Amino acid sequence: MSLSVRMQHALPGIDLDLSFDAPSGVTVLFGRSGSGKTTIVNGVAGLMRPQAGRVAVDDWVLFDTDQGLWLPPHRRRLGYIFQEGRLFPHLTVRQNLAYGRWFAPRKAPRENPDKVIEMLGIGHLLDRRPAGLSGGEKQRVAIGRALLASPRLILADEPLAALDDARKAEILPYFERLRDEVSVPILYVTHSAAEVARLATSVVALQDGKVVRHGPASDVLADPSVAPAGIRAVGAVLQVRVLKHHPDGLTELDAHGSRLFLPQIRHRVGEDLRIRIPAQEVILSSKVPEGLSALNVLSGTVDSIRSGDGPGAIVAVKTPAGIVLARVTRRSVAALDLRPGSPCHAVIKTVALAPQDVGGRIRSGD
C-alpha cells in the first residue's frame, strides 16, 4: 500500500501547500513546531477539512476537493496513535483492544489479536485498567488498539513526546516491529532526529507548510537547513552489523569492513542495524591519529564542506563505512587545509554512540 497526499490550506501564520507520496513502512513528517505536521495529520484523519487537495491510500480516496468527495473520519479506516494513550479508563486492556475491532468493517482483513498482543508484549496486562499502567504500557496498548481496527493507514502524532527517555527506549522497538511487520503505511510525526534515524523508511521535511526535502533519513539528517533542532540535529546514518559482544562491556560492529565500538547493546550477534552518529560528536584529523583514547577512527576523504553564516562548518567525510559528518569550526577547516578530495580521518568517541541512536535496520532497505 502507499499513501498519496496533496493539500492546500491557509491558517493564521502558515499557508499549507504541499504534496508527497508515502510507501509502506514509516514516513516521518519532520520539522520545527509550526511547520504544519499536525495539520497534515489532522487533514488526513478528517479532523480538519483542507480547502483544497486529495488524499488516497492506493485507490481508497479519503477526500478529493476536485471531485467533491469527503469521507467522514469514522469511515476512513484509520488507526490514530496520540501523544498520550487516550485509553478508556473504565475498560480493561482487553476491552480497549476490542474497541478497535468493533469499528472494523466485517469484510476487512483482520489482524490476529494473539499475534498483536504477542508483538507488543502486553499479554500480562489484559485484565488491568489504564490507571494501573505505565506510560510505555499505555502506548503499547494504544498501538494494539489502532492495529486491531483493521486500518488502511496508521497515524502517529508525536507518540513518544510525553514519555521519559526510559519509556521511549521501551517503545521504539515496537514501532520498529510495526514498520517491518505491518503492510499499511504509517505517517509518523516527530521533531526527534534519533526517532527519524531509527524508524523512517522515508522522511518528509517541512518548513512553513512546504516540503523542503523528501527522501531517506540519511539524506535529510545530513542537511542542517531542514533539521528541526538546527545544526545540533545533523548527523550521519550508517548501516552496520553486530559482530561481537566483548566482556569489557563494549559491542563491536562491522560497518562495511570498518570496525566500530559502542557501549554494549541488546542486539544479537549477526543482526543488521543502523546507527546515527551526531556530527557534533566527531572530530577530524588530516593525519592518522595516534595515542588517542577514542576507539573509533574511520579513514577516508573529504566529500564536501558546507559553511554557515557563523563560525561553524559541516564536513562530510567519505569512508568505507559510509558518509560521516563532522561539525567543526571554519578555522579548523582552514588549519587542516581540508578541501574536497583531501585525506581525512573521522574520530568518534565510543560513549558518543548512545543507545537511543541504535535501531533495527529496515528489512526492505532504505
Mind explaining what this structure looks like?
One of its GO terms (molecular function) is ATP binding. InterPro entries: AAA+_ATPase, ABC_transporter-like_ATP-bd, ABC_transporter-like_CS, Mo/tungstate-bd_C_term_dom, ModC_ABC_ATP-bd, Molybdenum_import_ModC, Mop_domain, P-loop_NTPase. The protein is of the alpha+beta class and about 375 residues long. The chain folds into two domains: about 5-225, Rossmann fold; about 235-360, RNA polymerase II/Efflux pump adaptor protein, barrel-sandwich hybrid domain (OB fold (Dihydrolipoamide Acetyltransferase, E2P)). About 20% of the residues lie in helices and about 35% in strands. It is built from eight helices and 21 strands. It has helices spanning about 35-45, 95-100, 115-120, 135-145, 165-180, 195-200, 215-220, 330-335; strands at about 5-10, 15-20, 25-30, 50-55, 60-65, 70, 80, 155, 185-190, 200-205, 210-215, 235-245, 250-255, 260-265, 270-280, 280-285, 295-305, 310-320, 320-330, 345-350, 360. It has a six-stranded mixed β-sheet with strand order 7-8-9-3-10-11, with helices on both faces. It has a five-stranded antiparallel β-sheet with strand order 2-1-4-5-6, covered by helices on one side. It is globular, with a radius of gyration of 22 Å. The protein starts with a strand and ends in a 6-residue tail after the last strand. The model has no long low-confidence stretch (mean pLDDT about 90).
